[in-house]
Amino acid sequence: MIPFPKFIKPKDELTEDREETVVDESVSHFVYNPLHSLALDQQRKKLPVWQNRDNILYLLQEYQTLIVLGETGSGKSTQIPQYIYEAGWCKDGVIAITEPRRVAAKSLANRVAEEKGVIAGDLVGYSVRFDECTSAERTKIKYMTEGMLLREILYDPVLKPYKFIMVDEVHERTLLTDLVLGLLKKIMKQRRDLKLVISSATVDADHLCNYFDLSQEADSEAKPTASVISISGILHPVEIHYLKDPLPDYIKAAVETVVEIHKKEPPGDILVFLTGQEEVKIAVELLTDWADSLKRSYGEMMPLPMFASLGNRDQLRVFQRAPHGVRKVIVSTNVAETSVTIPNITYVVDSGFMKLRCYDPETRMDTLGVVPVSKASATQRAGRAGRTRRGKVFRLYTEESFHSLLNSNPPEMQRTDISQVVLQLNALGIKNVLRFDYLSPPPSKNLASALERLHAHGAIDDSCNLTMPLGLHLAELPLDPNLGKMLISSGDFGCSEEIASIIAMLQVESVFLTPRSGDEFTRARKAQRQYKVAEGDLITSLNVLSDYEDSGESSQWCSSNFFNRRALQRAVKIKAQLIGILKKFEVPVVQCRGNEESIMKCIATGLFMNAAYQSPSGEYRTVRGDVSVSIHPKSVLNEVQPPPLLLFVDVIHTTKRYIRDLTAVEESILKQVAPHYYK
Q: Which domains are delineated in the chain?
């Protein structure tokens, strides 16, 4: 057994010596507890951003672009949109606030709605993929993901309904963040009345300021159009603890560190950072087992998961205060690193790793790999512990390892597949994607690979122009081009209902529940086995959703078969929206009634580039690139005879390259649906 992690007692120079601000305890209640007796406007005035309210409004009046550097806890994400609204500047327009993640957009909208004394969907609303809560007539403050703003730009290239746009958490530099910023710069040249707020905790302000200073392109003597303001946050001193020696298993080390904190440290909730949904679930299960044995001697511990695809009800539990005498332990992906603020966090356990998507144009594989965090991310994570009181951070790596980290990770635009970017730009009439004014230009190899992929799908022609209607429909769909091609082609194969079900199931967390106890585990395996088929994961998920719908969406059916009902409920809603999109595109909505060959051909139409064959040695290798890959441990194909050829949706790179969401396919089908690719 690995011993509990040994941390170095922080020396004075290791402690983040921030001047401690004396803050009324009501501030913490404001941020997290809407039922506190103080009036909400009094609580808002205690946030650091309030001290800069007049300066922010003045700069917005004088400049077209304002870059706000706000430390964690400053209130920038919730307060600046309210200041703009209260100034009366949006009587005939809307304030849009973009967030990188759906969880952040929804939680911030709900928080601001509480502060304004309205329900979400009225004055304050949100719009995320497959979920919208707004009113066309009444919503003036609208939180949304960057992808949803991009959808609106496709329909209205100058964003007429909006007067102010705030792009939040820019330091994450997601693919959509960079694309949205580039398009907004283009729009602002045509609409001088449109104001832009760029908000971040850590970002290269000079680079952004120069990028958005439109006066440089007009006249060297003209007044600058962009400005910067910095806001301090509510941060108390944070003790940083490092490991003495590296440990081989950071998940186990994280669990054991939480147990030690619960035994030895004063009350205060714990936030644990892991890399992905599967790791979060494993850690929560382990902590739940520990909680039972610790309850009598050390008090109750409440482990809760937090990740992007978590259901609304489970998300709500994360943000609610724990009962008196109960220590809440939130195990999260990096979704809790920025924007989303979880109440009463005193201790942070940082695994030191995160998932990062990287694209190899040579193998044409977009892999999601586990990599060390950057110094900027580690600092952000540590900042979660100093919001309401003195905090402690336990980093599951050595101090030497921290100093060897990159200052920040490269932007997604330079390390991922940019097929969707090329589609969006073409749909907006930007034909020469090479000359587009990128904030960080992508490598030429990535751009060439994206053009080849889209041409193979028939989304662009030989002149790189968008094809009609396929290319335009792919640009409009909130899906990866591979899945979008499957959906749009489903009408031709007479299986649009089935393909909509499969794609909907790919958008939610795993529906298979795995009980811990021996008897229930055996019953679950037996009940779920009847849905698992040799054709692979996608057909298995189709079987599950079809039976769930046939049962009348019965909770009893879910319980007896050990399926996650909330995930299935969300899949049903997403399927309905996908069918609505098909009707809008005038694609026939039909069922193939058990014609499995039609479904397999349609799947191959979208995934023909993601094929792997079984080599004589028994390992799988990709058809294009000849890269060694392994079947994901959670795949149903581990329980049957391995097929000679299969298609995959995604690749995860941990100790190996794992392909997941698999479908067994025959070689003749690939040659039939993609003869141009498999000559």
A: 26-231 (3.40.50.300), 235-412 (3.40.50.300), 479-673 (no CATH)
